[in-house]
Specification:
It is built from four helices and two strands, in the order ββαααα. 57% of the residues lie in helices and 12% in strands. Strands 1-2 form a two-stranded antiparallel sheet. Helix 1 (17-29) crosses helix 2 (32-39).
Length: 80
C-alpha cells in the first residue's frame, strides 16, 4: 500500500501505511484495545499511531480524525 496524500486546507498530508491501517481499524471499533488486538500491537502503540494521524489531519481527537479521513476519502464511510 502506498502513502496516502491529500490536500487539507492547502497543506499536503502524508499518512504512513501503518497510520492509515490503525486509523481504519480504530474508526471501525472506536477502541484502542480492540484495534490493538486486531493488529497485534498494544493499545499504547495504537494511541501513538492515532496521535500522529490526528495531528497530521488537524483533528482535535481520534473521532475527529476518523471524520476528517472519511471526508478526504482516505477511509470508507460507515453505513448508517
Amino acid at each position: 500500500m502506498s502513502v496516502k496524500d491529500y490536500a487539507a486546507e492547502g497543506h499536503i498530508v502524508h499518512l504512513t501505511p501503518r497510520e492509515l491501517e490503525v486509523l481504519r481499524s480504530y474508526c471501525d471499533t472506536h477502541s484502542y484495545k480492540e484495534t490493538g488486538r486486531a493488529l497485534g500491537i498494544t493499545g499504547e502503540t495504537v494511541k501513538a499511531h492515532l496521535t500522529a494521524a490526528r495531528l497530521k489531519l488537524g483533528a482535535v481527537d481520534s473521532w475527529g480524525a476518523c471524520a476528517k479521513a472519511q471526508e478526504a476519502g482516505l477511509i470508507a464511510r460507515r453505513a448508517a
